[in-house]
Amino acid sequence: MQQTPPHAAATPESKESSTEAPPKQVAQAMDRLAHAGRLIADIRLGADRLLEALFVSAQPHQSSKPLQLIVKEEASMRQCLQDLRTVDNQCNAFLQYTDATSMSMLICWFRVLSII
C-alpha cells in the first residue's frame, strides 16, 4: 500500500485559495473600474457637447466654430472609447483568474459605474 504524502492532503485547500484574487489585484481591478466610470462620464459629456454643437450649427449664419467643436469632440470620444476598450480587456484578463465571488463583485461595480 502506498501512502499519500502529507502535502497532497493540503492540495484541495491550496487549489481553493489560489482561485481567490490577491488584495493587490482586486485593488487594481477596482482602480480600473473607477477609471472606466470616469471614461463613461467623459463619453456622456462628449455626447452632450456634440448634440449642442449640432444644434448650434443648425442655426442660420453660424461660423465654423461648431464644426471645429464637432471634430474635436468626435476625436475625444473616439479616444475615450478606445481607452474604455483597453480597460475592458484588462478587467476581462483579471476576471479569468478570480473566483466567482470576486467576479460577481466586480461585475456589480461595473454595472453601477455604467449607470452613473
From TrEMBL:
Cellular localization per UniProt: Nucleus
Keywords annotated in UniProt: Nucleus, Transcription, Transcription regulation
Keyword Nucleus recorded: yes
PANTHER family found in the cross-reference section: 34 KDA TRANSCRIPTIONAL CO-ACTIVATOR-RELATED, MEDIATOR OF RNA POLYMERASE II TRANSCRIPTION SUBUNIT 27
Highest taxon listed in the record's lineage: Eukaryota
Protein name: Mediator of RNA polymerase II transcription subunit 11
Keyword Transcription: yes
InterPro entries for this protein: Mediator_Med27
Disordered: annotated span: 1-26
GO CC annotations, alphabetized: nucleus
Family of the protein in this entry: Belongs to the Mediator complex subunit 27 family.
